[in-house]
């Protein structure tokens, strides 16, 4: 009896784990951005147009789920925009908004780390033995 999937199609445990950490932290950033700007601590009462900042975060979701290496690479660069926003707001805002900014910074670092480890692991596995 033969397996229907080739061995190369089965991801390593590290690749699978980093994929789910990346997807989870990306989804958490989306939910955090929506909740932050609509209900928890919007810039203006009743919500803020700053909620639109989560739209670019929705773009890479399908690429992560489909294991597109290119998506992991450019997302690891794009996440620094949100990291910068989090650092600025953590140091300039007060109260709940500053705490939410700290959570944003943590999620950005988690997402970046997951993307980098994912890409490095896949490249190392794909490199020819020398």
Integer-rounded radius of gyration: 18 Å
Low-confidence stretches: none
Helix segment tally? 5
Query: What is the total number of structural domains?
Result: 1
Pfam family, one: DUF2069
Organism: Ramlibacter tataouinensis
Protein name: Membrane protein
Keywords: Membrane, Transmembrane, Transmembrane helix
Please specify the SSE layout and strand pairing.
Blueprint lengths: L12 H28 L14 H4 L2 H5 L3 H24 L3 H31 L4
Helix pairs in contact: 1-5, 4-5
InterPro entries: DUF2069_membrane
Protein name: Membrane protein
Pfam family, one: DUF2069
In short:
The chain is mostly helical. The protein is 71% helix and 0% strand. α4 runs antiparallel to α5.
Please tell me about this protein's structure.
The protein is an all-alpha fold. It has helices at residues 13-40, 55-58, 61-65, 69-92, 96-126. α1 packs antiparallel against α5 (96-126) and α4 packs antiparallel against α5 (96-126). The model has no long low-confidence stretch (mean pLDDT 91).
Keywords:
130 residues; mainly alpha; elongated
């Amino acid at each position: 009896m033969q397996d229907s999937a080739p061995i190369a199609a089965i991801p390593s445990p590290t690749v699978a784990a980093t994929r789910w950490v990346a997807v989870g932290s990306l989804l958490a950033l989306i939910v955090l951005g929506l909740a932050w700007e609509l209900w928890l601590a919007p810039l203006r009462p009743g919500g803020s147009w700053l909620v639109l900042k989560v739209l670019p975060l929705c773009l890479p979701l399908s690429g992560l789920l489909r294991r597109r290496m290119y998506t992991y690479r450019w997302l690891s660069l794009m996440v620094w925009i949100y990291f910068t926003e989090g650092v600025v707001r953590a140091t300039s805002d007060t109260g709940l908004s500053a705490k939410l900014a700290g959570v944003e910074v943590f999620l950005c670092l988690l997402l970046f780390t997951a993307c980098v480890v994912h890409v490095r692991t896949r490249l190392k596995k794909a490199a020819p033995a020398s």
